[in-house]
Design a protein that fits this description.
The structure holds 2 protein chains of 2 kinds. By secondary structure, chain A is mostly helical. In chain A, about 80% of the residues lie in helices and about 0% in strands. Chain A has a single domain, classed as Orthogonal Bundle (MetI-like fold). Classes of the chains: A mainly alpha, B mainly alpha.
Chain lengths: ~290, ~260
Amino acid sequence: MMQEARRRVAIGFLTAPAYVWLTVTVLLPLSAMLFFSFLTVAPINGREAQLTTEHYLTFIDKDFYRTLTWRSLRLGFDVTLACVLVGYPAALALAKHVKGRWREAIFLLIILPFWSNALVRVYSWTMVMREGGFLDWVLHWMAPDAPPFGLLFTYPAIVIGLVHSYLPYVVLTCYISLEAIDDSLMEAARSLGASTLQVFWRVILPLSLPGLLVGVILTFIPVIGSFMEPRILGGRAGIMLGTVIEDQFTTVFNWPRGAALSFIMLGIVLLIFAASAPLLRSRLKGL
Amino acid sequence: MRDLGIWAVRLYLGLMLLFLYLPIVVMVLLAFNRSPLYQLPIVWDTVWFQSLIHNDRLVGAGLNSVGLALVNMVIATALGTMVAIAFARYQFRGKAVLELLLFPPITIPWLIIGISMLIFFFWVGIGRGLHAMLLGHVALSLPYVIMVVGARLKGYGPALEEAAATLGASPWQAFWRVSLPVMAPGVAAAALFAFAVSFDQFVISYFLAPPGVSTLPVEIYAAIRKGFTPEINAISTIIILFSMGLMLLIARLYRFGGER
């Protein structure tokens, strides 16, 4: 009995500080945001606020917000698709066709930029894409008469920048599940007469699907929540749900509307998680 | 035929690395270019790095960034390691819930987390500023610290401590002389990780920065929106080399990618 009490005290002592911290910084703020999204004005500096559902109603009513949400989802889709198309083959090549020190070195080189400063990496693309930037310089060198390319401030520029940001993520998650596939499975399939393509479709792809899915989710979600990348690389072409939310807090100062838009975005995120929960749970259990 | 395949694989991986590193290299090279309009070819000069020293705003923001990252590192590492120990050593009701609660800070877009913090902190009177940023950075760092230290602790059971106890060590002694040295590499990696999370964090800091107080990423974002200058390249070069170096150090202490 004494021992059980001591055990409980120990668990409480070890976990309470961190979870109190997380409550104050994540759970309570999210609740406050939900509350604010139903107010007419932000109740700060003594202003009186009434309860209202107008922010959610405008979202449903106005075409602007629907188009906006659609644009953000579309961006998430395009970026994720590009990351998978480029990243999955790379992970496969790395896991099954590169060995030893090279594999370790290349793996580290792919992961390294991912864990460095995101803002700086987005900025670095402006140096390549701006008019008269590196890309134009190369183009001019190859074809002196070609007009400047001017890729910056276009939709493709945003996609390229975001693919650059999240590609390492997809390679990482795919690599982890591809590397875990036993080579003898592939040999067995081959000895039973499967072609290379069949081995891929029937053995490799199904077994690596959980890793691929985790990569897809963990790319799609931050991309629909992105605002800094569309702002810097997209300019006027970069108006997304994220940038409009940012505006509500930095220039327009309509906090309740920003809160409502954020909550709609959070709803989308939660829907995605709910849809993929069964697979995610089995995958992330070994935290 | 087989050779061809290998070359195709190498070419593909090479092109991908080129894609990942080309913009960074271009940015770094242009930081050493004298022309304020990025004119090519490059005329080598360190003038932009020199002008950084006289940019009081940037220097101040840099000091804020480093100080914040250090305090964040200490707090997040301490609290996170405690949780990791509790998770590794005890089975208890509600543990699954506690583990699940680690996901929101790292999976919900930072934009949402950032503005919810802004709203809540303003509402309850915490306000904006470095202290508010610290609250946010620690929350983001905690899940990583718990995972990294937890992975290290998984490698060994309570057997070592039990052995120490049988040999007459007090629980304190067992912790300091046996457990801590075993988990030290994991804790060190987690600490550096926490430092990096805070040092590179932009979104949370951006929303919690009052006028006049900022960190390097916040300052850079403001500068980019005003227009591109080689000075941004110079400070960006310093930041990216620093954070990549930090990550290399962590990779030495702790293997990513599941293999240990």
